[in-house]
Amino acid sequence: MKNTLLLCLALIAAPVASQAADVKGDAGAGSRKVAMCYGCHGIARYQTDFPQVYKVPKIGGQNAKYMVAALDEYRSGQRKHPSMQGIAGSLSDQDIADVAAFFAAFDAKAAPVPETPPAPPAALAARLAVCEACHGKNFNNTTDAAYPKLAGQYADYLLVSLKAYMTDNNPRVGRSNAIMRGMIAPEVDGKMKPTFNNAELKQVAQYLSSLPGDLKTASESEFHRSASR
Predict the structure, then answer these.
(1) For residue 16, is pLDDT > 50?
(2) Is the dihedral of CA 220, 97, 105, 50 positive or negative?
(3) HSE-up of 25 (CA within 13 Å, CB side)?
C-alpha cells in the first residue's frame, strides 16, 4: 500500500500555485499570448533534445488549474528546465492564468472516451487502483482540476517527469516540490532513496500513455480556430 500511495502521488500530485485566488484566466486574452508556445507544443510528437530527450507534453485540453501551478513552479525555479523557466519568468500572474485558460478550452475529444479504460498489466493493477481516487477510472476526468490528466500523455514525458523528483543538484533538471520529492525519493541517512526502479516507472508511463483521453497537440491554425470559437 505504501508503494501504491507513493506512485500515485508521484504521478499526479499537483504543485500549489502561489497566485492570488482572484486572478481569473481569459482564454481569448490567452490566444494572444501563446505564440511562444507554438514552436514546441504546436507540433505533434515534437521531441526536445535539451536538457533531456523526450516528446514535449500535450497540453491542449489539460486542466487550467494544474497548468497554472506548473507554470508558477517553473517561474519560481521549483521545476527546472531552461526554456520553460525563461518563458514562465517572463509571464505575470494574469498571463499565466490566461495561457492556461486558453489551452484548457480546447475541444480535444476527437472520439468518445470509454468510462472503463483498458485493464492495466496485472503487475500494475494494485498500484494504479488507488490513483483513481484523483484521476477517475479512465485517468482523464480528474476529481480536482489541480491534478493533471494523464491518459494519452506521451510515455517518455511521464517518465522524465517522475525521474525529475529523483534528481538533485542539477541546474537544468529536477523538480523540488517537497511533497512529491518526499514521496517518490525520500531522504534516508542524508541520501535519496528512490522508491521505484526504472523498469517499474516505464511500465506505468507506457500504460497511462496507451489510454484514450482528451489531451492533444494542435497546429498553430487550430490554436487560432479554437480561440475564435
Answers:
(1) no
(2) positive
(3) 24
